[in-house]
Amino acid sequence: MSLRFQADADLDPEIGRGLRRREPAIDFLGARGVIPDGTPDPEVLRLAAEAGRVLVSRDVTTMSVHFRRFIEQSESPGLLLITSRRSIGAVIDGLLLVWLNWEPEELRNQLRWVP
User: Fold this and answer.
1) Are 45 and 70 in contact, with CB atoms under 8 Å apart?
2) Residues ≥6 apart with Cβ < 8 Å to 87
3) How is domain 4-113 classified at the architecture level of CATH?
4) What separation in angstroms does the CA of 110 have from each of 37, 54, 68, 77?
5) Residues 23-44: pLDDT tens digits?
6) Which pTM was predicted?
7) What does the alpha-carbon distance between residue 72 and residue 88 come to, in Å, rounded to a whole number?
């Protein structure tokens, strides 16, 4: 089974479009219609977990704290964080690398940085 991704509202939609251009089989769901701007981090984590999707976020300041609290009480497919310094192209390359090489079990309840 391949990883399934959920973009946080803070993620540039170009990342999802670029990923799907590079690899049409990738399951990457954008935030639009799923995670409105301003949704609290714990709710974002809950929505992604209920959908069985790894959350991809640039919210490095608070999301990691909320994630640690979340996994104390619930299961999560995982959290991938991206620093704001990364270009869209570098993020696409990193997410593609993750999708091609990591198994869902490797990310379960884990916080990782996009390579």
Assistant:
1) yes
2) none
3) 3-Layer(aba) Sandwich (3.40)
4) 24, 10, 9, 8
5) 999 999 999 989 988 899 999 9
6) 0.95
7) 32
